[in-house]
Amino acid sequence: MAGMRSPLTVETRRKLYEEDSKWPVKAVLRIVAACFALIATILFAIATSFENANFSNTAGNGDWTDGLALAPVVLSFLYNIATLTLHFVVRRGHHFHPAWHIAGDFLVWGLSVPAIIFAVGGGIFWYWTPAVPSQNGIVDCAFFFNAWAPECNAVAYTIGHLEIAGIVMLFLVFIIHIILFAFACVDTHKWRKAGEVRGVEKKEFELQYNKDPEQQSYTT
Asked: Is the pTM of this model over 0.85?
């Protein structure tokens, strides 16, 4: 059956999309993913700039983990904007093969997995500690245990909150692209089946046309 697969006509492609009742859902998901990705990009970019300005990364931790998280969210934003632009503006509803979405969405959520792991594992928020006041009730920032207390290191709490918010946005982007990836797999299967059906019909037409050479010569 695979050998009988045939390229789909423009009319067949249009019909497949007209029969796709989930297209509005997919469009909304891409818009939401682009918004979440943009917010995450801003959050991680600010966190990275604060870390570069206030901390020296001597142990391999720090701003590179937040910088890594920028890769999937920037890619998600650009890919979703490009996809929506092609659908609604450039091609005016003439959509490209859903296999492209398999590659694009897989790349986004595939990059999101290590980005989430490293962003969580290398977050500044792990260093947060409550203040330990002295006997007279004063928080001495020179005291070792107060180095990461909010009273002595407020910027660490600002960075940590930015990281937590960015990780939440990144995780939502990750979930949305897994859903879109599943949709793309289903759509690609439908396109493949439609190509196989068209290939069979084309083969049957050729067999029928070539069955009677005399009739063929008569009609020509």
From this structure: no
